[in-house]
Amino acid sequence: MKNLFVSAGLVALGAAALQQSALAADVNSPKDWSISGTLRGFYDDNYEPGTANSGTFGAEVSPSVSYHLPLQQTDLGIRYTYGLYYYQERNDTGQDAFDQTHQVDLWLDHAFNERWHGKFTDTFAAGQEPELLQPMQNGESVTHRVNGDNIANHGAVALTTDWARQFSTVFTYNNNFYDYDNAGATEANWLTTPDRPTLAGVLNRDENSASIDFKWHVQPETTLFVGYQYSLVNYTGDEPIAFSIPLLIDKPGSKGFYQSSDRDSMTHYAYVGLEHQFTPNLGGSARGGVSYTDIYNDPLNSNTSWAPYADVSLTYTYLPGSYVQVGFTQNINATDQVQPDSSGNMTQYAESSVGYASLNHKITSKLTGSVIGRIQYSTFQGGAASSEDETDYSLGVNLNYMINQHFSLDVGYNYDDVVTSGSEVVDVGYSRNRAYLGLSANY
Description:
two-stranded antiparallel sheet, Porin, mainly beta, 18-stranded antiparallel barrel
């Protein structure tokens, strides 16, 4: 597998929504097995961001097979999706013209009894598409293609317990694992390595988090809750990622090199929230609080910091099959910016504000349109890029026409634009336009 897209863009939000819809379809389907596939032609005017803009026509083939087993108290399933992408421009220049992706989804939903309910989900992805490695709006700052076999795994376990009619708890555990193949930097070859630091060095990581929510069901349509989350991030690249003369002077044994694990951190979240169903077709949730992050492994500047935390969403279903969703999140996230400042301190993470909106409208019984928009504003914390920012704008438009119960046509357009400010941000901004036309089948 070659040439991985790792851009944080609107496609991620749309793909995550499609994935959730597909999961729901599997759960509701009376069939044990289902097979689907998509054939698309596309044009991408900047298919390799980070280099000179070059456009290409291409084709995509994406078959999928799933198995769903509903039982009396248990629902479980598995789905495998394969993607094959052909790029005409790469073929014309003598490069490998094909990319491949693999995705495996697992889910298990079990009711132990009337009060105890558990849920497990896991998604393993390997390949070239950004929405596979970093779904939804939790963004990376990597915005260009890189070569290699790259994988990501996202797993979650939730246990809901109804202790009384008005009181329940939800315990959640999440794990996110990332492994990029762009690796190989060492202290010995640092000066001669063209891509330093490598993506593996700065972004290979294992993220673990556990949370507990205490919920009070004030009314059938209103729930108040208070919660706590503990998050631990361990960077696993095991490579030098930055050179700092102040670090060399202060810690001679380091030889002046920051290592991947020097970015390890732990974060505590405290928040309060509200879930409310305003009307049968209008509902929303909001949580807000603070995060406290401890960069405990930085050899030169171990420190702690506070940051705001928020997650707000609102969904309005105005017609059957037609709905609007808007939302906002505020959190810290990983970044590939590491360049040290004049004091020798490197960038540890970014604070990101994300606003998003989606509209799905059933125009006729067979024609459905959707529009998805997203803006992510990130500021870098520490290092040479400290207080500088990056803004990611994304827009997607899609029309789907259902020919019959098995076949449908879709046409769409995606736009991405990344704008950076300041002279110390390593990656320059870019813009990208993609258009596609495809045929899908489902049995």
